[in-house]
TrEMBL record:
Protein's UniProt name: Epoxyqueuosine reductase QueG
InterPro entries for the chain: 4Fe4S_Fe-S-bd, 4Fe4S_Fe_S_CS
Source organism per UniProt: Granulicella aggregans
Taxonomy, superkingdom: Bacteria
Any Pfam family hit: Fer4_7
Amino acid sequence: MPDQPNPRRPKRGTYSPKPETLELLRVSGNPINGLGEKTPRRPSPFFWHPPDQHPYGDLQVVARQSSRACPDSGPAFMAAYSYPELIPVAEEQNPASAEQLSAEATDFALSHEADAVGIAAMDPLYVFEGYTVEEPWVIVLGLAHNYERLKEVPSDETNGVGVVDIGDQYAKGTRSSYALANWIRSQGYTADPYPGPSASALVLIPPAIAAGLGELGKHGSLINSKFGSGVRLAGVTTNMPLVATGPSRFGADEFCATCQVCTRACPPGAISEEKQMVRGVERWYVNFDKCIPYFAETASCGICIAECPWTRPDVRPKLLTTMARRMAV
Ligand code: SF4
Ligand code: SF4
């Protein structure tokens, strides 16, 4: 039986932001993101950074309030923000090879709630302006959504299933990244965890792509070959000797070129049909000014990642086969 239409999603073209939300969007986020810039540069601190680092602190408050108004979301996000202690770095270093340490770190993460793991060499472009990361490696962790719960988005006071799943994945990312950082520290190497949803030094999607965890989708999020767009990220930076794992291409970028599922499903019409130049890279881009009022009013939205055909467990295997065939030609 086909799914019933989700009553919490407005029909395309019928949404307009509340005036009080629009008032808080005091400056456009697109220039801050580097839209139209032809030279690569580090990203500027943005939404979910501490509010003194960008102009959207009041919008973050609206987004948090709309999330917390949904049933059961409070404990889920409290778990995401419960940071365990980091242990001191052990004096003696594990002398194993980079290959062996990479395998051990990956196994450790997979047995501590991560659903996917990739390793990328650090690039200064992965670090937000104003922050410093000394470590030469980043381990990226993927935390997979439960599709049956994710497809309930957007959440509101009557139904919090979707946003609770978002909070649960971030909480897994917090526990998993801290556990991995502490394991690496116990092996005598430095390690720092970077879970979401709050942002700090590390941008996560570019190293995730470099590490082979997926491709960038038209909706601006990662598409993973095993979990589609239903995946959250966390990172761990370290000086442990490691071996890079990616990138990996399975045809998501090519598929996005002709797919319009997310552009049609996005209530404010924020997803661009064409790639755009952003900080020196031509790539898919979401118009921040259109997305963020809806995102803030609807408990972090999530419609585009839930609707993406790659996210649907019944569709993803067929897409992988089709795109593997097309990529081989
Ligand atoms: S998260 Fe933003 S881009 Fe995605 S559907 Fe919602 S409003 Fe559109
Ligand atoms: S819905 Fe379609 S266009 Fe959008 S990200 Fe997914 S595959 Fe790409």
